[in-house]
Amino acid sequence: MIGIVAFVAAAFWPTPAPGFWLALLAIIFSGVGLTKARIGTASNRSLAGVGMALGLLALMAAIYAAFAH
């Protein structure tokens, strides 16, 4: 969920800062989710993977938006 919000904020917000910070949170939380799925305490591996991918896309969009102006 944070990955989706981060991508929308990075792509469409007037300033890229909120998208950047939300993207970092999405990457961190997805990493925690992937780690827990790998050790067997969670069963949401695919959802954490999608969150990681969206977080990385949002991070790239925020960096692009920061330097495109």
What's the short story on this structure?
The protein has three helices and no strands. The protein has 69 residues and is an all-alpha fold.
On the 0-100 scale, what is the average pLDDT? 90
Q: How many strands, which pairing sense, and closed or not: the largest β-sheet?
A: none
Overall spatial form? elongated
Annotation, overall tally of beta strands = 0
Describe the protein.
With 69 residues, this protein is mostly helical. The protein contains three helices and no strands. The longest helix has 24 residues, at 45-68. The mean pLDDT is 90.
SSE order and pairing:
Blueprint: H1 2-12, H2 17-39, H3 45-68
Throw out a few tags for this protein.
0% strand, 69 residues, mainly alpha, elongated, 3 helices
